[in-house]
Amino acid sequence: MTAPGARRRKQMHLAAHFPGVNSTTVWADPRSGSQIDFSSFRHLAATAERGLFDFFFLAEGLRLREHKGRIHDLDVVGRPESITVLSALAAVTERIGLAATVNATFNEPYELARRLASLDHLSGGRAAWNVVTSSDAFTGENFRRGGYLDRAERYTRAAEFVATARELWDSWTPDGVPRPFAHHGRHFSVSGTFDVARSPQGHPVVIQAGDSDEGREFAASAADVIFTRHGTLEAGQAFYADVKRRLSAYGRRPGDLKVMPGVTFALGDTGAEAQEKAAEIRKQQVSPQNALLALEQVWGRDLSGYDPDGPLPAVDPDPGGEVAQGRVRIADPLAVAARWRAVSEAKGLSIRQTVIETTGRQSFIGTPASVAAQLDEFVTAGAADGFILVPHLTPGGLDDFVDRVVPLLQERGAFRTEYTGATLREHLGLPLPVCHS
Fold it and tell me: Is residue 300 located within the same domain as residue 417?
């Protein structure tokens, strides 16, 4: 039963990330299922909706990652196209939001705005777009233009892309009248008449994933949700305050952007059991081969001769070295290596143990009651508005959380007990965008 005064408490937002990217999934677990079968997507989405989550989130890969010229098959880096999957899920879900990751570097505004508006119509106002960018020529080889963008240019194009898409969505008035549009900018010059009527949300919800200064500024100017990561309560509070502070420069209020870090969890009947389970999950995620992969990404060198259970290399990273393609490059490998060495030396850790220690997401570990308390503390202490949960199993990795943690969050008055709106904007407490047509 909800405690007196609970309605006045800050409510957290929850989303479900379909696992399988960046070695998240524990493939050795017999409960690990298909990353391709529609039944997997449907199971996780249905579980999240049963848990009254705000949205279901799909990542995307435009090219299979390679390591030293070979496909690295220990992590899933691609899957069926996001909007296609979510359009199918719109037919078998009723309330949960449907968030597609789509690249703003290798798409065009008219075509993508049309697809997202169509998903918003099909789902009754539940569509979201996670805007990502790419500057690497390796991924660009799959596209006619190639990877021509400098790293600094990718956010410039993305910002104009989002602005152009919004112009298209706004070219239909709320009462159903289409009007010609014309956009002439640095990256896009498009004009005509948009052929999809204004959708239930006006604009699909825009999500931005990024921790860099450019990513934070882009989110403050254009996003409704920012998907981030941070390792401690204090780091979360600093990030939260920084991003919220930037909003006023764009005439926005703190509630106009929701901060939702991606997090993992491990549950046990006791704290010790949960810690043991979490340690085993991380050990399976960071196999010896994956440990060396992570090391080589930082060092930019072939380190296949090193023992994963031995010490870190004495040699320094090669700042210009590149052994992996299709991954985000390490911005300052020398600084990362120095931090890893400090952790390794302080705790006497091997290569594999160091990677386990330094590369995990924020994780909430404990009994269902203690995990509920930890999540609630992050929200009430101003470190997050909610969380995007990244389970380690496909497709049943969210089941325990929904069955055992969500009811406790509801008892604390920290999470909804029913959906009170039909659209994703209503779930997130976001206003309808003003149509300027």
Answer: no
